[in-house]
Amino acid sequence: MSGPTLHLAVEIDGDGAHPAAWRRAAHSPDQLLTPRRVAQIAAVAENAGFTLVTLDDGVLPPGVSPDPVGRIGAVERAAFLAASTSTIGIAPVVPVTYAEPFHVSSQLASLDHISAGRAGWVVTEEERPEAARAWGRPVVADADARARESRDGVEVARALWDSWEDDAVIRSVATSRYLDRERLHYIDFTGETYAVKGPAIVPRPPQGQLVVLGRPDRVPAAQLDVALVAGLDLTAVATAAAAAGTPRVFAEIEVALDTPEATAAERVADLERHAPWTDRGRLRHIGQADQLIALLGELSQHVDGVRLHPLVLDEDLPVLSRLVLPALSERRLVARPLPSTSLRSTLSLERPANRFATAAVQEEEAR
Description:
Low-confidence stretches: none
Strand content: 15-25%
Structural class: alpha/beta
Number of helices: 11
Helix content: 25-40%
Order of helices and strands: EHEHEHEHHEEEEEEHEHEHEHHH
Radius of gyration: 21 Å
Number of strands: 13
Mean pLDDT: 93
């Protein structure tokens, strides 16, 4: 763990964690996919002092009928938010079960450039077989095979981010030299299902390597910067955090808070009339803001941060902003991200050295 500071992330896809959250949203359904909507939510999170927003995604529409479903790609939304925010980290969810890791790495590297080093990546899997049809690929139905695709995808992306050394770009008009070809490298990756040679088509990201978040039971801990761990109670979360083996650990928490209009239990019951709140094995808090503050205080002894999944964004995010984060700040349990600071720096993660540059130095020293 990095110290007493608890980093808070919030998932802002759709209208909230409940599949029927749209029924309690403060906007009409046709506003969900507008740029203004996603910008407003991100602005609230940034002004409140959240460390990071994540944007869920998948090739298939979220949810099922009769609820309205749909989303714009997470990377596209993240790029828009990168240009309309200034301090908060932005991490799209990008599965690599079927997506080409070369293209994913290029998109994410571009996002890090746009955001001036505030980008992350939440690695997940496409579990539904219909996703394979959408991509025009054979189904990856086995859990171990999906984990392999995630592992290989992260390995390829990380290698491609290093395929340009930091000083590969010259931009010398006087000499008409813009790239140092000696500082571009082939990664020569060969996996079980594909091979990638490289180098990348985007210069090395400002952070060197984006912050990679994921489940340590699906992606090797050595490939992750932040483990996302779950558990139905505090003991289970603490046990998972202790076993994660990653530089940072975030707990997954679903939250429904009391509001001036209704209690959390009443709000959940209202939505449960339309659809069940799926149990994903995460710690779930339904109740007062004070109780959540106490829970987060306990969690700060075991994890470096939490990713909150609000029941309804329009109802829970204002309570989090008005009551929860200020109280945590007063107790010095959270710290607001600073301007002109990379996400890696905010999380107290070192900027990694370029593997190819390091190898060249070691080879030179061996001579």
